[in-house]
UniProtKB/TrEMBL annotation:
Designated name of the protein: Dynein regulation protein LC7
InterPro entries with a match to the protein in the record: LAMTOR2-like, Roadblock/LAMTOR2_dom
Highest taxon listed in the record's lineage: Bacteria
PANTHER family: LATE ENDOSOMAL/LYSOSOMAL MP1 INTERACTING PROTEIN (PTHR13323)
GO molecular function: guanyl-nucleotide exchange factor activity; molecular adaptor activity
Any GO BP: positive regulation of TOR signaling
Signal sequence segment: none
Organism: Desulfosarcina widdelii
Residue ranges constituting the Roadblock/LAMTOR2 domain according to the UniProt record: 14-104
Length: 134
């Protein structure tokens, strides 16, 4: 499906991600489409990542993991999480077309983060659905 997001929707997405996720102490939140195109990119200003390479790799990683799920008879895996020594990354699929990538340190609880992601996904779906009805 094709989506055209206007500036009001993009501002709403940025506000929801800032309010619900960045305030938790997350280093970076990136909303991408499944082709790896960056839609919203927020960071704490301290750490700089190569966002475009990260987005492309995240989309590819998610695609590969989805293929593995299919091979073993699962529709998809609901949690994609990679734990590092000091940084962690969480991938959350939103509808069929978007992926939310969250990068955070060990000081952020994964359980609490996932709860907040579930809340923000509801807001994101409402904002994105506006582009379908336009």
């Amino acid at each position: 499906m094709s989506y055209i997001l206007d500036q009001e929707q993009l501002d709403g997405l940025e506000e929801a991600l800032t309010t619900d996720l960045m305030t938790l102490g997350i280093q970076s939140v990136i909303l991408i489409d499944m082709a790896g195109n960056v839609i919203v990119n927020l960071d704490d200003g301290k750490v700089r990542h190569d966002v475009y390479s990260l987005a492309a790799l995240a989309a590819g990683n998610f695609g590969a993991v989805s293929a593995m799920a299919s091979i073993i008879g699962e529709e998809e895996f609901s949690l994609l999480f990679h734990k590092g020594k000091s940084e962690n990354i969480n991938f959350t699929k939103i509808m069929d077309d978007f992926l939310l990538v969250s990068i955070f340190g060990n000081d952020v609880s994964l359980g609490y983060l996932r709860l907040k992601i579930d809340e923000v996904i509801k807001k994101i779906k409402v904002l994105i659905d506006k582009s379908r009805s336009s």
